[in-house]
Design goal:
single chain, about 170 residues, alpha+beta, Glutaredoxin, 2 domains, four-stranded mixed β-sheet, 4 helices, 4 strands
Length: about 170
C-alpha cells in the first residue's frame, strides 16, 4: 500500500471519531432533557431534610400555631424548576384554607437551609400547627406538591378525628 492510502484511512477514521463524539454529546443532551421532563411519581425523599414527625427548627419567624399548615419551599436562584414551580405553589396556597406558603431562597437565607438540613431544591417541608414536620421531600411539579399536601391533610384530619395511630409512638396519648 502506498502512503496516500494510509493518510486517507487516518483522515476517515478521525472524521468517524468526531462524528461519533458529536452523536454521543447529542444523545447525552437528550437524556438530560428527558430526565428533567419525566419526574418521579410523588414527592421523593432525597436523604435530606428534617426528620418526619419531629419538631421543626424554631426561630425562623414562622408562626406555626396560627396556621393549620405551613409549607416551607426551599428554592435557589439558578434552579429553573424552582422558577416554574413557585407560581403554582402560590396558587395552591390561595386554594387551601389555613395553608401558608413560606419561600426560602438559598441566596437570601442559607442559615435556614442548614437548620432544616436541606441541600437540594426545590424542596418542600410541611409543618402542622403543633410545629411538627408532617412531610418533606423534593417536588419537581405542582402535581407532586398537591399530592404531598393531600396526604398531609388526610393525616391531620385523622388526628383531629381521634385516630392517634397516625402519630409516632412518643406523641401518642
Amino acid at each position: 500500500m502506498s502512503g496516500s492510502v494510509w493518510i486517507a484511512s487516518y483522515i476517515l477514521l478521525w472524521v468517524a471519531v468526531i462524528l461519533l463524539s458529536i452523536t454521543c454529546i447529542a444523545l447525552l443532551r437528550q437524556i438530560g432533557l428527558l430526565h428533567t421532563r419525566v419526574s418521579p411519581m410523588g414527592v421523593h425523599f432525597a436523604g435530606e431534610g428534617p426528620d418526619l414527625d419531629t419538631p421543626a427548627p424554631d426561630g425562623y419567624a414562622y408562626d406555626y400555631p396560627s396556621n393549620d399548615l405551613t409549607l416551607v419551599a426551599f428554592t435557589s436562584p439558578d434552579c429553573t424548576i424552582c422558577a416554574s414551580l413557585t407560581p403554582g405553589l402560590e396558587r395552591i396556597a390561595k386554594t387551601y384554607d389555613g395553608l401558608v406558603l413560606r419561600t426560602v431562597g438559598f441566596d437570601e437565607d442559607p442559615k435556614t437551609f442548614s437548620a432544616f438540613k436541606v441541600r437540594s431544591t426545590p424542596y418542600l417541608v410541611a409543618i402542622d400547627r403543633s410545629g411538627y414536620v408532617r412531610s418533606r421531600g423534593v417536588a419537581n411539579t405542582v402535581d407532586q406538591a398537591e399530592e404531598m399536601l393531600a396526604e398531609v391533610y388526610a393525616t391531620i384530619d385523622a388526628l383531629e378525628n381521634g385516630d392517634s395511630s397516625q402519630l409516632p409512638k412518643e406523641q401518642r396519648p
